Amino acid sequence: MREQVEVFGAHDHAGCMADAMAAAERHCTANKLQFTPSRRRVLEILLREHKAMGAYEILDKLREEGLGSQPPVAYRALDFLVTHGFAHRIERLNAFIACTRTEDRHTPAFLICRSCDRVVEADTDPEAGELGRAAKRTGFIIERTVREAEGLCPRCVERNAA
Ligand SMILES: [Zn+2]
Ligand SMILES: [Zn+2]
Ligand SMILES: [Zn+2]
Predict the structure, then answer these.
(1) Is residue 3 part of a domain?
(2) Ligand 2 centroid distance, CA of 120 (Å)
(3) 8 Å CB contact between 38 and 67
(4) Residue 33 Cα, ligand 3 centroid: separation in angstroms?
(5) Mean pLDDT of 94-102
(6) Ligand 3 centre from 161 Cα, in Å?
(7) Is the terminal CB of the chain with fewer CB neighbours within 10 Å at N or C?
(8) Relative to the alpha carbon of 99, which ligand is closest?
(9) Cα-to-centroid distance, 22 and ligand 3 (Å)
(10) pLDDT for res 18
(11) From the CA of 79, how far away is ligand 3's center (Å)?
């Protein structure tokens, strides 16, 4: 399992982008998936900043680069990335974020900074915790949970205090 990337703090971001792209590349090769230029580019755009981005924001970037100006291009690429776990959808913001833990199966929880829009992906265990215990008691099988918390990241807390 890969170390949790401390994206709110200083980190080797070039390395973190390269790791995520390489992991996506490996996954596509192993599973005979087509990592087309637009899919690759959308993942790079999402990885560039650890920020949630809306489909239209991504579409604007693709258009600037001449990779297609039709919304379906961006939606199809995002759909592919989310389906294969390279990106996640943040329901609260109706936006997308690149996954920083592509190597393992995980149930992400998101910490969303309402001031700078940066999002950190934390890993949670759906079997543990209150929801998991309640499910076990009632014989319910959890297939999917949505965990999103909104607040202030350390940088914005500091800026507010200054
Ligand atoms: Zn990074
Ligand atoms: Zn993830
Ligand atoms: Zn912030």
Answers:
(1) no
(2) 10
(3) yes
(4) 35
(5) 85
(6) 13
(7) C
(8) 2
(9) 28
(10) 92
(11) 27
67 CA distance to ligand 3 middle (Å):
31
Domain holding 28, by residue range, is: 8-161
Q: Structure tokens of 35?
A: 């990592």
Which CATH number characterizes residue 12's domain?
A: 1.10.10.10
- Is 134 contained in some domain? yes
Is-contact 56 75, C-beta < 8 A?
no
pLDDT in tens, 105-148: 677 889 999 998 888 888 777 677 788 889 899 999 887 778 89
Question: How far is ligand 2, taken at its centre, from the CA of residue 121, in Å?
Answer: 7
Of 25-34, 80-89, 103-112, 127-136, minimum mean pLDDT range: 103-112
Tokens in use for 144? 């999917």
3-class secondary-structure state, position 158: helix
Number of domains in the chain: 1
pTM of the predicted protein model = 0.80
Q: Percent helix, strand and coil across the chain, each rounded to 5?
A: 45, 15, 40
